[in-house]
Amino acid sequence: MVDTVIVEAEAPPVSAVSWPAIIAGGFVAAAFTLLLLALGSGIGFSVISPWSAPTDITTTKAATVAGIYMAVTAVMASALGGYITGRLRARWLRAPLDEIYFRDTAHGVLAWAFATVMGAALLASAATIVAGGAAAGAGPSAAIASASGTTPNDIAAPFLDRLFRPDYAALTGDTGQRAAGVFAGGRDLAADREAARRLLLGVRHRELAADDRQYLVQMVAARTGLAPADAERRVTTIETEIRGALDTARRVAMQLSFWLVAALFLGAFAAGFAATEGGAARDGR
C-alpha cells in the first residue's frame, strides 16, 4: 500500500501596499473634487451678482461660505476615493485584524495624498500655461499697462486711477502737457503712479509720514489741477480706503488659509475612515 502525501503549497506573499488600488482611489478622488468645485463655481456665479458692490462683511462671508464648501468637497471626494481604495486592495489572509485595520487606514491616507499632490501639480501647471499664454498674447494691452504704470491684479490700480483723476475744467487753459500726463521737467505719469503706489501700499505697516504725505499732495495737485486743500482731502480719502482694502484682503486670505488646512485634515480623516469600511466590505467582515 502506497501512502499518498498531500503537500499544501504556501500562498505567495502579498505586498502590504496595494499601489494600483491607491492610484485608482486617488484618481477618483481628484476627479470628484473637480466635479464638486465646478458645481460650486456654478452655484456661486448664479447667486452672486457682479454688479453688487462688495463690502468687508460680504467679502468675509463669501470667504467663509467658500471655505465651508471646500471642506465639504474634501470630505466627500476623499471618502469616495478612500472607499474605492479599500474595496480594490489585495486581501491579506494571514495578517492580524489590527494590522489589516492599520493598512486600510494607511491606504486611504495614501490615496488622499496622491490626489492632493496630483491636483496641486496640475493646478500649478495650468496656472503656468495660462500665465504664459496671457503674457504672450497680451500685445498692445501689456504695453498700455506698462505705460500707465499698472500691472494685472494690482490692488492699488483703482485707487491710483482715482487719485490721479484730473480736473479737466481746471486744466482747460493749459497747454495740454499736464492733461497728457507729462511734466515740463520730463517726469511722466507712470513714474508718479509707481511712487504713489509704493507710498500707499506702505500704509499697511504705518501711516504716511508728514513729508511723504506732503510730497503726495503736491504730486496730486500738480497732476490733477486740484487746489492743495482738495488734493490733501483726496489723498486722505484714498489712504483710508486702501488701508481698508488691504485689511480686507488680509482677512480673506487668512480665512481661506485656515479653511484649506481644515479641509486637508478632514479629507485625510475621511479617506482613512472610508478605506477601513471599504476594506471590511472587501474581506466580508
Please describe what this structure looks like:
By secondary structure, this protein is mostly helical. The protein has two domains: 19-120 and 256-283, no CATH class; 148-246, no CATH class. 71% of the residues lie in helices and 0% in strands. It has helices at 19-47, 56-88, 97-136, 140-148, 157-163, 189-201, 210-224, 228-283. Helix 1 (19-47) packs across helix 3 and helix 6 (189-201) packs antiparallel against helix 7 (210-224). The protein is rod-shaped and about 115 Å long.
Mean pLDDT: 79
Number of strands: 0
Our measurement of the CA-to-CA distance between the termini, rounded to an integer number of angstroms, reads 45 Å
Number of helices: 8
Largest sheet: none
The low-confidence runs, each spanning 5 or more residues with pLDDT under 50, are: 137-149, 175-185
User: How large is the share of residues in beta strands?
Assistant: under 5%
Oligomer: single chain
Shape call: rod-shaped
Pick out its properties.
single chain, 2 domains, rod-shaped, 285 residues, 8 helices, mainly alpha
